[in-house]
């Protein structure tokens, strides 16, 4: 189920992410400019006062994030999700600033034909491209989301970083 | 000011700062109060420090650093991301409070440039006090906090413009217009430079060893302040621009980190030095202006904030919280008055009154504002009784 995450900037303070939890509560996470994090929990979404506030240093926040994200112990549901993908992996590959692929469309770069990895989406500011099309052009600063087999990503990264593009493989 | 006096001053400011922090109040009015107590004017029980060239210079550095940091936070992308709230809420706040400020100003000084400066002093809320209160009182998670901070960004923008001619405007109308044009031009150049110069600056600053990095940034800051001063714009606007130019570079965070402590020390000294010049007996002359201004501020900020909140779709209680967070005035009120105090086209009596007014007004609103913020939710429950119990019935 997609979570309706709202991002808002707090000028001079940092960034705030807010979402409603399935049991009717509200959770706000504030990333302070100085690295401090705060988690505000409201038991009911329209409560006046937070039920609890948790303050975390940068390292504590990262640790907590890893635990919640399942880096230590994978919840059953995540394992099942990976089963569904089987041998396929999804990876996020940032486009290097010097990549010769910048300016080429996905079709012209022939990334899939040459490595087996399919680009399914492109993350970029301000608007990500979901469902990348062959005519979408790779831009500086993009992160490509690719689906492929585990062994194919190394070649993909190398091709993206060094080319060559244009000639026949 | 000797080294020994400076040491005593810093010690006093440190202890006071800690004490008010323990009470949950903002440090700025405490620094002001320390200046009033230890300065040569009434009360004269303790006269420790007298204004001198040194104190003036220290105060000037305080302004330069405060404005530099404002500039660093000021980039185009951040202004845009402050988003929809900033526009509408900011305009409501400006319309309500600048005009009420003008009423006070005209009542105090007649139709004059001093009245405009006073209006600016009454208009601009304190970002520093508000941000501290919102953090301390656990309000950052509240939705209306976004509105408050966006309005503060808008105010800073307007005040940056006011700072441009506070120090020298108000003479011949044509001169003032030229000055306004210069200030606008200066800020525009700064914003353009931040966009186009970010990369080359980045590359240059990134390669410098730390020692020279600090010197280069500090030199650029002071140089920019000096240039603005020469153009007749005030050092404040120059420092602001230096910050804006560097705001889009990747070394911004590093600069903030390295100069943070400079800002805090010199800003504290700036507020202290400002307090030195305040004579408490001035209450006899400006007391009524302060009282009127505080009353109208409460009206304008609570009313304006409430309207801005309701327009943006918040509940009555949330809108009250938003207005309350805007009551405290501090750093920019003081900076405006300080800059205007060097303005030859304002009548000397009015300049003195402006200084005393700003000091007392900040003492009053910063204290009232923080207390109101602390109690605003309780106040909201009393003023706007909750319809929730009925809604909760199955």
Write the layout of secondary structure elements.
The complex is a heterodimer of chains A (169) and B (394).
Chain A: E1 6-10, E2 14-20, E3 26-32, E4 37-42, E5 52-56, H1 58-69, H2 76-85, E6 88-94, H3 106-109, H4 111-115, E7 118-123, E8 129-130, E9 143-149, H5 152-162
Antiparallel strand pairs in A: 1-2, 2-3, 3-4, 4-5, 6-9, 7-8, 7-9
Chain B: H1 3-23, H2 27-38, H3 53-72, H4 76-109, H5 113-123, H6 127-136, H7 144-166, H8 173-196, H9 198-207, H10 210-230, H11 235-246, H12 252-276, H13 283-311, H14 316-325, H15 331-340, H16 348-383, H17 388-392
Helix pairs in contact in B: 1-2, 2-12, 2-16, 3-11, 3-12, 4-5, 4-7, 4-13, 5-15, 5-16, 6-7, 6-16, 7-14, 7-15, 8-11, 10-11, 13-14, 13-16, 14-16, 15-16
Question: What would you say this structure looks like, in words?
Answer:
The complex is a heterodimer of chains A (169) and B (394). With 169 residues, chain A is an alpha+beta fold. Chain A has 2 domains: 6-69; 82-162, Regulator of K+ conductance, C-terminal domain (Alpha-Beta Plaits), CATH 3.30.70. In chain A, 25% of the residues lie in helices and 31% in strands. Chain A is built from 5 helices and 9 strands; from the N terminus they run E-E-E-E-E-H-H-E-H-H-E-E-E-H. A 5-stranded antiparallel sheet of chain A has the order 1-2-3-4-5. In chain A, strand 2 and strand 3 form a beta hairpin. Chain A starts with 5 loop residues before the first strand and ends in a 7-residue tail after the last helix. The mean pLDDT of chain A is 83. Chain B is mainly alpha-helical and 394 residues long. Chain B has one domain (3-384): Na+/H+ antiporter like fold. Chain B has helices at residues 3-23, 27-38, 53-72, 76-109, 113-123, 127-136, 144-166, 173-196, 198-207, 210-230, 235-246, 252-276, 283-311, 316-325, 331-340, 348-383, 388-392. The N and C termini of chain B lie far apart (72 Å). The model of chain B is unreliable at 390-394 (pLDDT under 50). Chain A binds chain B through residues 8-13, 16, 18, 26, 28, 30, 33, 38, 40, 42, 46, 48-50, 53, and chain B through 73, 78, 81-83, 127, 131, 134-135, 138, 140-141, 143, 145-146, 149-150, 152-153, 256, 317, 377, 380-381, 388.
